[in-house]
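Review form for a predicted model. The reviewer records the input and the model, then writes brief findings.
Reviewer: anonymous (R2)
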Amino acid sequence: MPTIADGCYVADSARLVGDLHLGNDSSVWHMVAARGDVNHIRIGQRTNVQDGTILHVTRRSESNPGGFPLIIGDDVTIGHKCMLHGCTLGNRILVGMGAIIMDGVVVEDDVFIGAGTLVPPNKILESGYLYVGNPMQKKRPLKDSERAFLTQSAINYVELKNDYLEEGQR
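Model under review:
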């Protein structure tokens, strides 16, 4: 069964299954499917998973004894209709709408992934950069304003989920 920490918001239409932990002040929005059924999902604090996103993992096997769990850090914004599968995301990341991040990918802290970006398996996305494209390409270093937005986006969603909790919108 999923473990939901204090102060979280999970929309009624979201479906959380299996070995999943949602950290303090995080939010999971409408029509999200998160399946920790064959491996585990860990979502940090103040992270938001927006509408229509799919979160899944890869089963352990003889050729891949650990499988690929899904690990998402603190202050992460995952845009609408993304797909994250068996990857690891650090802290202060924005995943743009419709992005796909595949098995074995590691996204370091302070990264902006553009809308519609496809990150192929086993890539490492270096801290401090914007990545875009299909397949993804390292575009340029983040501007100071973009770095600031990574944290601000997480704060915005903490405030929004607090509004939903106060108004009893579940």
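Findings: The mean pLDDT is 97.
Further findings: The two ends are 19 Å apart (CA to CA).
Recommendation: see findings above.
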